[in-house]
Specification:
Helix content is 48%, strand content 11%. It contains ten helices and seven strands. Helix 2 runs parallel beside helix 4, helix 7 packs across helix 9 and helix 7 crosses helix 10.
Amino acid sequence: MLFGTGIEEWRRGWRRTAGTVPEREAVVSASDHTRGAATTTQVVPDQRLAYTVLGAPAGIERILDAVAEHLVDARGFGPAVIIDDVEPLLADRGRDAVSALVDGLRARLDGYRSTVVIGCSFTEQTAPIVASLFDPVDDVDRIDHSVAAVLNGLRRDDPTTYGYVRRHWAEARDGIERCERNYPQARQIHAALSEPETTPRTLGTALSGLVTLDVLDTWSETVGPTRYDLTAYRPARMWAVGATVAVGEDNEMSSE
């Protein structure tokens, strides 16, 4: 299912990346490349390809119906459904449209032994919505984000702090987002948590790592314990940190 590219461009990219083509392939294109075109469906038997081009803007139900038509004969194949790239839909129509697409796709795939992969460019405009839609631990299998280089630098230069970030980023996120102070100390962020696994000290180490990762900042106008500037908190970057760490842990486990 295409939102950001034309059919041939996407298929060429697939061949370069995967080195092969699927045994059977169906493409639904709702990208800007087809804007203004009438809905057409074509079958190319010798290439084992069927494709539907939707005139844009296409409603979510219309997109899902086009996908469902291609799934009619695929129940016994365990189809893989790829959405690439959902970011244009997110930018044009917002969170509700993407939620409707994902929920509708889930309903239409009920009873199939299917795999669904959703690709989404992580832009400044859409990052907060992406973070609200997809859980960084459960929903992300791969992430390509600039924070990975900074995380690698932290792991190389300060492995202890990196370890605290890796283990406690989610608790740090919850404490930051629940804390009602603008410039709290680590113990005050910790106090906002219920049943924490961290102590104020270990949470403080994780928070210092998040400062290095440019997720939040420190407030310089103080003496004594460090105060954190939560007005500079970047929740979308926190999501990217969590997703990158989670994906890295999965890769480490799979290589053992």
